[in-house]
Please model this.
Amino acid sequence: MSEALVWRESYATGVGLLDDQHRELVRLINRLLDPGDDIAVGARLDTLLAHLRRHFETENVFLRAIDYPLAEEHIREHTMQLAELIDLRRTVARAAQGLSADDRAAIRHWFFNHVVAEDRRFGAYYRRVICGAAE
Ligand SMILES: [Fe+2]
Ligand SMILES: [Fe+2]
Model:
């Protein structure tokens, strides 16, 4: 069974720049989860981390700018997620091996729980409160 994530437009927040970054995130996660090439895992994790740092910075500024009520909680989540990925990066470097099945499952789980579920919540707030769109 393919592990690859598929971007769906129903995942979109409605914020163009953030959705573009989320699409790129899907591409980078899929490269990371590609089982054919364990040797490249460290470099792929570095690329993913660099993208996520930029993405979280952009999203954090946006959440504060729109006065999202859950902004600080959401920003704390980002900080924890980065710390976990940095931890995983260290483990991979130390063990000089690829990702375990648990690591892979955790990354997919994080994508669906955070990007798809939590980011969509602020997307709904943005469209309703800031844009005045009817849901
Ligand atoms: Fe996001
Ligand atoms: Fe987020």
About this structure: DSSP finds four helices and no strands in the chain. Residues 18, 22, 55, 59, 115, 119 surround fe (ii) ion (ligand 1) (CB under 6 Å). Helices lie at 16-33, 41-65, 71-95, 101-130. The domain at 14-130 is CATH 1.20.120.50 (Four Helix Bundle (Hemerythrin (Met), subunit A)).
